């Protein structure tokens, strides 16, 4: 096993997870799905948004927002860097694309990402006065934050990061947008380049707007004795192997549990993507030790964009878990865990189905196209799959080592 993989894989003593636990989670997931009466009102099954997309990466926000729609959200918005808007609109007329952020004049190519300039911009912001309460209408970063702020109250969940790139000016604006979403208590997914932003905000000390918003959120939640409250909106981190290790390094953490303790709250989850998906959370129930593994068989293809599909599936699932009309489900302590677990399974079933059809030619668009059929499988499969034991790390294998 490679060093990179080993450092981010936690709690291996909990690595043996009987699949027999999954039925109750899948049953709970099914109870999160809005019924058809909710669908009578456009938006009742979710109005969600993806903040991402830059000149180089227009596929990632498209995959994430479309996966959210195919999972069941009624409306999906994309808030992107200006130059990405037309290509994303051209990918899908189903999406509402809002050109929002502006890259730096001397833009830094996303494919040539450097940490230095971003560090400098965020450090400068730490010394700046707090953001103005009335924002000028000019098309600058304040304008981007203002536009997003106008839409935010209508959104049921927001994913930050797919295809965002690392332009300092864009990340500077998104830091404020993310902080606003934290303050509004909307479910948030932090993926891809937004994980990088989170790491930079953590490294810059405790005085960025984002770190202040996260600290206030932690304080709010710890007032409830560390237990997830029904009002708490989850923050879900979805690192791949590289992003996970970068995050741990940024927060000088040896373990993902420290991230959960010091950056996140009891309502939060870290979905560590890999051969098996590992769901890390503040475990309060002996039946569900952290990390919980998602052992659904996926696809051997590792084409780009599959993480974006997962991000979109999570986005809609988290919106449902947060807003579920059924009071008993909304108060269920494992509803976010069930939502994340269901989204992981959905993505892996879709990937498996795509691979069965397209074999070596499978690309993220094929996985996306299978989200609908995969949802049917997930919704209708027998409630009690055969109990078997899955050994953590069974597949943490050559493919991880070779990367
Ligand atoms: N069509 C589009 O628009 C798409 C756009 N996308 C967007 O691209 C942006 C950057 O995302 P990213 O994942 O390429 O960047 P990052 O995390 O810095 O990794 C960089 C390097 O890390 C390595 N590596 C990767 N995985 C690994 C693993 N499991 N285990 C070990 N190593 C691993 C690998 O380098 P290698 O080690 O192979 O040299 C890789 O090149 C982001 O915004 C994302 O949303 C994508 O969503 C795809 C579809
Ligand atoms: N080795 C693997 N075998 C099977 N499935 C995997 C493997 N690695 C990741 N997956 C699955 O692929 C999906 C995306 O994970 P991945 O690690 O590729 O994310 P990512 O690198 O962020 O993707 P993206 O290319 O969209 O940025 C997840 O559903 C995960 O469960």
UniProtKB/TrEMBL annotation:
Q: Which GO terms describe its biological process?
A: metabolite repair; nicotinamide nucleotide metabolic process
Where the record annotates domain YjeF C-terminal, the positions are: 25-378
Instruction: Name the source's superkingdom.
Output: Eukaryota
The family database entries (CDD domains) matched by this protein are listed as: YXKO-related
Reaction equations catalysed: (6S)-NADPHX + ATP = ADP + phosphate + NADPH + H(+); (6S)-NADHX + ATP = ADP + phosphate + NADH + H(+)
Recorded GO terms, molecular function?
A: ATP binding; ATP-dependent NAD(P)H-hydrate dehydratase activity
Pfam families associated with the record:
Carb_kinase (PF01256)
Q: What does this protein do?
A: Catalyzes the dehydration of the S-form of NAD(P)HX at the expense of ATP, which is converted to ADP. Together with NAD(P)HX epimerase, which catalyzes the epimerization of the S- and R-forms, the enzyme allows the repair of both epimers of NAD(P)HX, a damaged form of NAD(P)H that is a result of enzymatic or heat-dependent hydration.
PANTHER family xref list: ATP-DEPENDENT (S)-NAD(P)H-HYDRATE DEHYDRATASE, ATP-DEPENDENT (S)-NAD(P)H-HYDRATE DEHYDRATASE FAMILY MEMBER
Protein name as catalogued: ATP-dependent (S)-NAD(P)H-hydrate dehydratase
User: Which organism is this entry from?
Assistant: Cyanidium caldarium
